[in-house]
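for the record, two folds in this file. i put them one after another cuz i was lazy. first one right below, seq on top, structure tokens after. the second one comes after a little note so u can tell where it starts
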Amino acid sequence: MEYLQALVKERAFNYLKPHTIPQISSDNDLFICVSDFHLGSSNENYFGRYDSDIAAERLSEYLDEIIEIQKLHNSENAYVGFLGDLINGEIHFTTQLENRENLTSQVQKCAELLSSFVYELSKHFKKVYINGVAGNHSRTSYKDQVLRGNRLDNLIPWYMKAALQHIENIAFIDDNNYDDTIGKVAVRGNEYILVHGDWDSFNQSGVSKLVMMIGYKPSAIFYGHIHKCSYDDIYGVKIIRSGSFSGTGDDYCISKRIYGNASQMVVVLDSNGIKACYPVELK
């Protein structure tokens, strides 16, 4: 939706008006992954293109795809999960070279875009719930020289709470998270865990450690980090990985021979747990 870009361009997000709340009643909700947005990264080569303008276009495209999935299932509520790396950060020298915006601009633009994205979602769902975790790209220093929670991703939902506080059907549900790297969401009687994936491997060992640490077995765990969508089941715990908005055209991915299209994951949830998964490829 071009409207997202227009809102940000005109700074109209500061004046987002309350709207009529959709009256929907159904047996399912959507879990909408927003992972690895990498706002600030800029590259153009044989393997891909990405910059902040393309990020806005892909976010608009993703919004359109979400609405189509919602219509198909008549989904009642939306749960938006920020799964880390919302900004590209400055964690490596090559990352700094590839950035189009500095850290301050990355945080500002990302907060504006995601505020508009969530606002548009609120026009289509009875209620929109927001939660998330921080990713490794937003840390403020080298991996072994910074505390776990000192990550700039945390500024984005903090800002969004103020920008969207007057919209009645938007709620932030991060009060019960374990910390900045482990989030928790309850949907229709089932518990779901959110992580980025830099601390938690997408395999049996990683799932086992996380489950033992939190002290119970959740219905599913949502991941980001590796820039590709996937699904698995480990001893009854579903593990869902969302992709990235940036694709794999940056220097790190090319040098590691990591390739995949830009994508995100939308999951349909009902009282029994996961009903369907939609890996959404973005142009």
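(here's the note) second protein begins now
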Amino acid sequence: MIGRCATLIQKMSNAASRFFKDEGGNQTIEFIIFFPTVMFLFLATVEVGVYSIRHVVLERGLDLTVRSIRLNQAPVNAEGIRTTVCRNSLMIPKCDRSVRVEMLSLDARNFTASSIPAATKCLNLDDPVQPADEVQAGDPNQLMVLRVCALFDPFFPTTGFGKSIPKVSGGSYALVSLAAFAIEPS
């Protein structure tokens, strides 16, 4: 009986020794450890890149729109401003339905940072009734602030940067651009 136990223990010891010396499958373990990390970084990089490109395009569209308004070449109403921003911003999907415009006239002589409302007003995609854009037409040489809020859906909403972006409406995040200018006298 003791001889059988010793033989069984010897066989188990040999099997365990062969099992731990076998190097087959090492690549699989490395793949399982590193692939999710690399994919997470890749998806986060793509999301940050798309976010940055969209923000730059929105800023450029707003700058070109402000230039048109300053030179009295664009209509100074909500629809006209939105149309001009969308025409100048080529990478904004569904621009006419995802952009909200806010233009305020400010007193240049008594201007402080608190003169501009802190809360940016964006669209609420969950609400079928949207509030009207706030656009005040200014007089020549008056200080104006134009703020545009555009909503975008993240490319990868469950990973990386897409997961950490604060959502504003319906799973979309907001990009806000602001420009201050004076209307040129005509």
